[in-house]
DNA sequence: AATGAATGAGGGTTCATTCAT
DNA sequence: AATGAATGAACCCTCATTCAT
């Protein structure tokens, strides 16, 4: 393993080191998106990246660490975008719509990332056999969505309902939208997002 | 390969043969539910069933045939139950609620089956590399749900909306409910189902 | 194992037992001829015979014993025929020709046996890894052929030469004739046999 | 798979890679010669070579590729030698003798190769179940031998006869010589070769 | 006499990982 | 920093053999 803990408590990596990791992560995303998690061997990823198999092991402690980094780099970018889009929006209804439309908009240009994330979330497991990104890894998302819904309830925009159920439903509906789109490339993602936002909104208002 | 096609065009198996297959399928369901599709090796399944690895090969032409039978036996039972519960229900709103509550009720006692089905649907691949249960596995469900929604629209119970988006959302919401429940065993599944039915209904009515 | 040693020192088997063994041997011959020794599993042979796998093990101590019996039954029939045809022939040249033509004539109607014999001779091995029917098993044939050639030399029909080399060559030439014919079914076996007899004869006479 | 096609259309391999392949091929030859094709497992070959089983898979795409390479490396060397020895020989009778003596001479030091070749020719099968080196493997030899005989007929050295039968007989006689010698190590191979050449020659001349 | 069920060893292959260079 | 060679474990599958019925 190359990365070391620097004096600031952060992982410190050379520029070249970071570039290699990024390159490997990008190759991993493509391969996973194309052939699925199970078939995404290090050999395949290395070939796609145009490097040797050993180099991946050199830069990553193991396959798991690579997968985690794929998630971190990919997922981080999405969150960044969505949070930016929601900045300044004031009504709960608009926040809800914005969340759905924003993530849909971002994903339209990042289909491979979407597919890869789904594969990793659903397949990457810890040593104990449990999913590394279990439903628990959604907790963060649920909390964020619950904030929106609770906010809407506090302003009177939304009726009373179980916000956790709503958050789970919301999250799953968005994921399913992507899943359907991934399976049906001709599907109109934006229209789906608009319809979905409508459904969610109607389910909340009085 | 054990099974053969009898004169009636049905698979004809001895009682003992069928019992073994059922036992192996049951073990497979448990193992897949616990450790996921990729880690569900025949060795693991055999050990769980308390039999030798070779015996699985004796009763099934291959791992794929076993997986397909897991789906057939498990999925068939669910559909049977839900269809039975929906028999005689007349309003679209009640059909919708019944569907959600019925499958939730059934699943409460069949958590492993649920998990295993999801794993197989998402991972079992054909020789060509494509998912064996691709879109088709959901397509069937989508069609069934669309019927309910279209029926509601025809009677005026439901407003106009895109039934495919609704079906995808509905299906995913139910799945997510199970997923959440699987990850949080103390979660109140029935209450969740009731809340979810409310949300779906409100999203549909005028 | 069923067979037992009777009071006369011969293996005594019931009629039904013998019939079963014959049936299994026949099936083995067909299967070996079709798919080769390595692919001729007991399962395949049993299926061909229309019986269960276990029954073969019931009648034969093991696969090896079955193979040995295939050879005995098949090979014995050939020898019987050839010996009969050579009865009464008086000149060495005629004996030589008769031997070649007789075995060729017999084989024309017993291609499967021919193929199976070749497969077993070339592949059946003892526990020590050595061929069960090695070149040594040809010794019997060599001796018989040497008799012919030595007889010819004693009568002055044939010149002096190394009879062992001649016997080895003769035997191999006949085998190769069958091998070529087995690979080229349209090949004229009888013409080949005539030509071969000519060659052998010319090689011997002064 | 290691080997790749270089810019010159030739397989380009590193020195070390080629050495390993040669080592593995050598081990395969020995094992096949000793225990036969069917028992020559990769595990056995690897153990003989003093390497791990996986390394064979690393250097060869599969067992079949290894077997093909065994044939290529081994068979090529024989042909090279024999062709060289026959260079410049002018009479058909001398060509015939030279062929027999040359291959016999070469084989004296390459018994295992001979055995291994025979095993592979007779057992290596394609996916469709047919022998990979079927008639074709002999056909090449037959053609070459026929040339000699036809040449002799054209010069009047040899009488008229069926050259294909002669070629088949010639080839089989040489093979049998090796087989006999392999089974009887004390046998005088060179004398046998000389006698055989005599026989073949006498069979051809007027 | 005959079956079907069951085992266990061994087959070839894939793959993450390690390591010398 | 990077490679290619090498390992060993685990994978699915085949098969001769055994055994209760």
From TrEMBL, chains A, B, C, D:
It comes from the Bacteria. Keywords: DNA-binding, Transcription, Transcription regulation. Residues 41-60 bind DNA. Residues 18-78 form the HTH tetR-type domain. Pfam families: TetR_N. The keyword Magnesium does not apply. PROSITE patterns: HTH_TETR_1 (PS01081), HTH_TETR_2 (PS50977). This is TetR/AcrR family transcriptional regulator. It comes from Actinomadura luzonensis.
């Amino acid at each position: 393993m190359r990365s070391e803990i620097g004096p600031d408590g952060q992982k410190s990596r050379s520029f070249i080191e970071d570039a290699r990791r990024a390159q490997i992560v990008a190759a991993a995303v493509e391969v996973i998106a194309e052939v699925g998690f199970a078939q995404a061997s290090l050999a395949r990823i290395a070939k796609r990246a145009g490097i040797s198999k050993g180099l991946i092991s050199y830069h990553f402690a193991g396959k798991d660490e690579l997968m985690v980094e794929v998630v971190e780099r990919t997922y981080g970018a999405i969150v960044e975008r969505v949070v930016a889009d929601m900045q300044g929006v004031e009504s709960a209804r608009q926040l809800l719509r914005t969340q759905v439309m924003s993530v849909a908009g971002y994903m339209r240009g990042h289909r491979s990332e979407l597919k890869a994330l789904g594969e990793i979330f659903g397949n990457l497991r810890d040593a104990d056999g449990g999913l590394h990104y279990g439903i628990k890894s959604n907790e963060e998302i649920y909390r964020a969505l619950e904030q929106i819904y609770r906010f809407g309830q506090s302003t009177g925009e939304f009726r009373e309902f179980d916000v956790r159920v709503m958050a789970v439903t919301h999250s799953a509906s968005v994921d399913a939208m992507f899943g359907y789109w991934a399976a049906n490339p001709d599907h109109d993602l934006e229209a789906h997002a608009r319809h979905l936002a409508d459904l969610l909104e109607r389910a909340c208002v009085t």
